[in-house]
Amino acid sequence: MSFAANEAEDVRASASSADSGALPAGKAGASFGSAPRIRAILRDFSWAFLGLAAVRIWIQCTIYDRYAFTDAGLTSVVINASRVILTAIVVAVILKCGFPRNARRILSWFSVSAMTLGSVLFLVDAQLHPGTFDALACILAGCGLVWGGGQWMEFYLRLSPDESFFYALVSLALGSLGGMLLGYLPERVGAMVSVVMPTVSFAMLAWSLRLTQGRLESGRLDPAPKDTRYDDEPATTWVRLLLGLAFIEFAMGIARGFPHGSSFELAPVFQTLHQVGVIGISFAGLYIVLVRNRFMRYSTLWRFMLVLVAVGIILLTSLNWYGLSLGSTSIAIVNTVMLSVLWFTCYDIARHASVIPYVFLGVVWSVFLLAREAGRIFVMMVPPHDDFVTFVDVLMILALTMSIAVMFTDRIPVKREMFEGLRFDAGKLVLAFDALPAVSVSDGPQRVDLVQVYGLTKREAEVIDCLMQGKSKAQVGRELFISENTVRGYVKNAYSKMDVHNKEQLREKYYRS
After folding, report:
1. Fold entry, domain 446-512
2. Interior/surface letters 78-110, b for 16+ CB within 10 angstroms, e for the rest
3. Whole-model pTM?
4. I want to staple 277 with a disulfide (CB 3.0 to 4.6 A). Which of 263, 333, 362, 501 is the partner?
5. What single string gives the DSSP state of each residue in 202-224?
6. SS3 for 178?
7. What SS3 class is residue 481?
């Protein structure tokens, strides 16, 4: 029996047991390796797909001081303020002029350069004259990060919900593992690592897009959007989601500088607890959704986050060292996990809306950063007096209560349940495995459908076919009864549509294995 047939048989068994409400015999303790959904994802696995972990390691080293403290104080505020300003500009330009591929490429190169130069300046500043390049480094780092992480959405939108969920959480866990290891090394090592991370992320993204291009051409990959159901969603839905996010982030911004505005130093054991907590939550989410096939409601996930924040705030109000350490750790865990929650939320909405994905991504991240840094600035300005500490306590609890009031419901969104794509559908998984060709050594390269995949005209496809048979432009012209100049025109149009620049690139996109 072939690989595909084996996989399909396993999925049918899972589907049958799911219908009966029990796990398959011998699989009561289902592991990651035995789960059909995980196996389906790992079939096309590449380490390059985990490139978001490099971005997160850079963020930890550059913006949050490897989480040795709750944040880097004013440095974090300035970097995030720069991010919000540039994000607003980029969103405005996208809405007015669109976002063509060339513009995305230019922005990618700018991001890599700005993030790298920012890291270099931080490193030089720390080693030579502290404070000399601090402001410039903050602005460059913040502006570079706007697209440094956002550019990965193009890759994620090529993935199925299961794959996107898997790579988002594994990248988060891998980033935490890297951050935990760097936390035990000298600060200078972390600064040097942050210098190379933007280039590593950029290279991994380029490779990921290239790998998934083959799946796109073969029809095994459906690009977003899948539908536009969110286009009819009432405006109140998005207002409530953004308000709920703003309130919880404002409370967390205050908590990061509680009680007197300065960053709280975390002992190594609490730094480790933070990173291990994130890794544990990431793999718990993967196990619940992709192994046990349980649907995770958006509202349930949000309530879990609110509970962790509430626990953190309660511990902070104890004002003793252990309470402050545990409370700060709880807040740090939520802040880190929130990155993946918001990322997958933006991915889910982008697949079911006609709006340009980067617009919603920019709006969500701007609200996320603005609210949090507003809370951070507020607590910096509060006088270090016990009466004011009580006032800050009340304000954090009030902001958390407002977030609960806005988000504590299963009724939003209205048109489509958030994360619906993660519901287990055994039928679709069986079809996916059944559709896999049996592996055969005799299988050679096959021509892609140039008209369907790249939008070439029939005549352009004929010209490219002749070229790929080794014929010259003059021979192609004689065979098709057209001039050599006309042939050149068809080739130029085809190259543009296929986004290739030479014969080698053309050959790679012309064939599929």
Report:
1. Arc Repressor Mutant, subunit A (1.10.10)
2. bbbbbbbebbeebbeebeeeebeeeeeeebbeb
3. 0.77
4. 333
5. HHHHHHHHHHHHHHHHHTS--PS
6. helix
7. coil
479 or 506: which carries more pLDDT confidence?
506
Spans of all domains in the chain: 40-429, 446-512
Widest Cα–Cα separation across the chain? 90
pLDDT digits (tens, 9 = 90+) for 214-262: 666 555 665 555 678 888 899 999 999 999 999 999 999 999 888 878 8
| 477/481 Cα distance (integer angstroms) | 6
Closest to 36 measured CA to CA, from 55, 10, 58, 56:
10
Contact 246, 338 (CB under 8 A): no
438 near 46, Cβ under 8 Å?
no
**Those residues with Cβ within 8 angstroms of residue 381's Cβ, 6 or more apart along the chain or in another chain:** 261
Quick: pLDDT tens for 132-172.
777 888 889 989 999 999 999 999 998 989 999 999 999 99
How distant is the alpha carbon of residue 372 from its chain centre? 20
Q: Which of 60-69, 318-327, 413-422 has the highest mean pLDDT?
A: 318-327
Q: Which residue has the tokens 């990322």?
A: 343
Q: Give DSSP secondary structure letters for 441-478.
A: TT---EE--HHHHH---HHHHHHHHHHHTT--HHHHHH
Half-sphere CA count of 266, side-chain side, radius 13 A? 31
DSSP 8-state class, residue 355: S
Q: Residue 129: what pLDDT?
A: 67
Q: Which residues pair with 511 in a beta bridge?
A: 447
Residues contacting residue 282 through CB under 8 Å, at least 6 positions apart: 169, 170, 172, 173, 176, 337, 340
**CATH code of the domain made up of 40-429:** 1.20.1250.20
Alpha carbon distance 436, 431 (integer Å): 9
Q: What is the pLDDT of residue 282?
A: 96
333 contacts 278 by C-beta, under 8 angstroms: yes
Q: Which two tokens stand for residue 392?
A: 């800050």
Q: 3-class SS at 293?
A: coil
